[in-house]
TrEMBL record:
Species assigned in the record: Pseudarthrobacter polychromogenes
Biased composition annotated in UniProt, kind: Low complexity: 317-354, 361-371
Primary role: With LigD forms a non-homologous end joining (NHEJ) DNA repair enzyme, which repairs dsDNA breaks with reduced fidelity. Binds linear dsDNA with 5'- and 3'- overhangs but not closed circular dsDNA nor ssDNA. Recruits and stimulates the ligase activity of LigD.
Ranges for region Disordered: 257-377
Alphabetically ordered keywords of this record: DNA damage, DNA recombination, DNA repair, DNA-binding
Name this polypeptide is given: Non-homologous end joining protein Ku
Superkingdom of the organism of origin: Bacteria
DNA repair keyword on record: yes
Length: 377
């Protein structure tokens, strides 16, 4: 690596001389522009719009325009700015690392000790380790005063340049102000999906697919020339991408869980959510019923082990069917017997009632006859 800047960290009255190196680099394949007719490379020229001449870089100055007025600033005038001449990384605060907003991080630099004795460098590193804090610094680099964070990576001090507060835009979206209801079932399933994807971060396990495929395309074009077949190279038609099916949120969560678990044993949405139907959110049965219907259609393909087990199931199904038929027949007979018994009991009750009513009728008739007999006397 080549140092891009030299200076010193001002830690109180302690000076720590350092060399600054870019800690990151771009791994993208470099492409340039050409004329599609003859392959000639496209070049850009710095041409003056007044005299139409091509201008050398050494003859170019910088300018600022405001309200129709232009101010030209020469290189010497820009170099005269005091901050530009400073080669000091000034420590101004020590803060807890969790107070830094990651969005403010810009570019990282390695700092190497630049003195015969690295004692001051090690002392500052130990101070950051012992206090578990990050040093907030200010420094000037490439015609710009910068804010930075000084922290430790392994045994090296790393200078992380930060954006100024007014360089970070405020997120103000009217769509986020809408009243959105999330059911308990949806929250439980999303938490289950997060758990199924939980892991320790390992950057080396990820690949820049576009750059890999771009290299594959370049090599195929070198080998095949204009007869290049992109479908043969990538296994898909040129420009073809994944076309995601538009499904509802609950269905998407369930399919995601089933895909992660692989065996298709994720169960119904109610099982995944621990039996919670989400009524607490006021969604009711109208939301739950479509989910149950869709869950039948969303069953994933069975695994090989499931296929092997399914071969033993027909006999069990027949036995179960026969048993079910027998149970149904027994239930029908029992129902008929109960109906007959009920009818018999009803008939006996009616007969008894009729028998009891007959003597009462005779008695009433006898009384009426006696009354008529006594009348003439």
């Amino acid at each position: 690596m080549r140092a891009i800047w030299k200076g010193a960290i001002a830690f109180g009255l302690v000076n720590v001389p350092v060399k600054v190196y870019s800690a990151t680099e771009d791994h993208d394949i470099s492409l340039h522009q050409v004329h599609n007719a003859d392959g000639g490379r496209i070049r850009y020229q710095r041409r003056c719009e007044v005299c139409s001449q091509v201008i050398d870089y050494s003859d170019i100055e910088k300018a600022f325009e405001e309200d129709g007025r232009t101010v030209v600033l020469s290189k010497d005038e820009l170099k005269a700015i005091p901050a530009e001449n400073s080669h000091e990384i000034d420590v101004v605060q020590f803060v807890p690392s969790e107070q830094l907003e990651p969005m403010m991080f810009e570019k990282s630099y390695y700092l190497e000790p630049d003195s015969k004795s690295p004692k001051a460098y090690v002392l500052l590193r130990r101070a950051l380790e012992d206090t578990d804090r990050v040093a907030i610094v200010q420094f000037a680099l490439r015609e710009k005063t910068r804010l930075g964070a000084l922290r430790i990576k392994d045994d090296v001090l790393v200078l992380q340049s930060l954006l100024w507060p007014d360089e970070v835009r405020e997120a103000n979206f009217a769509s986020l102000e809408a009243d959105v209801r999330i059911s308990a079932q949806e929250r439980d399933m999303s938490a289950a999906l997060v758990e199924s994807m939980a892991a320790d971060f390992d950057p080396a396990s990820f690949t820049d697919d576009y750059q890999v495929q771009l290299r594959q395309l370049i090599e195929a074009k070198l080998e095949q020339g204009e007869s290049l077949d992109t479908e043969e190279t990538f296994g898909v038609e040129a420009g073809e991408g994944s076309k995601g099916e538009v499904i509802d949120l609950m269905e998407a969560l369930k399919r995601s869980l089933d895909r992660k678990r692989g065996s298709g044993s994720a169960g119904t949405p109610d099982d995944e959510a621990g039996g919670d139907s989400g009524d607490a959110a006021g969604d009711g049965e109208e939301e739950a019923k479509p989910a149950r219907k869709r869950s039948t259609a969303a069953k994933p393909a069975a695994s090989k082990s499931d296929a092997a087990e399914s071969a033993d199931k027909p006999a069990a199904r027949k036995t179960s069917a026969a048993k079910s038929a027998g149970d149904k027949a027994g239930a029908a007979k029992s129902s008929e017997a109960k109906g007959a018994a009920s009818k018999s009991a009803a008939s006996k009750s009616a007969a008894a009632k009729s028998t009891a009513e007959k003597p009462a009728a005779k008695t009433a008739a006898g009384k009426a006859a006696g009354t008529r007999a006594r009348k003439p006397a």
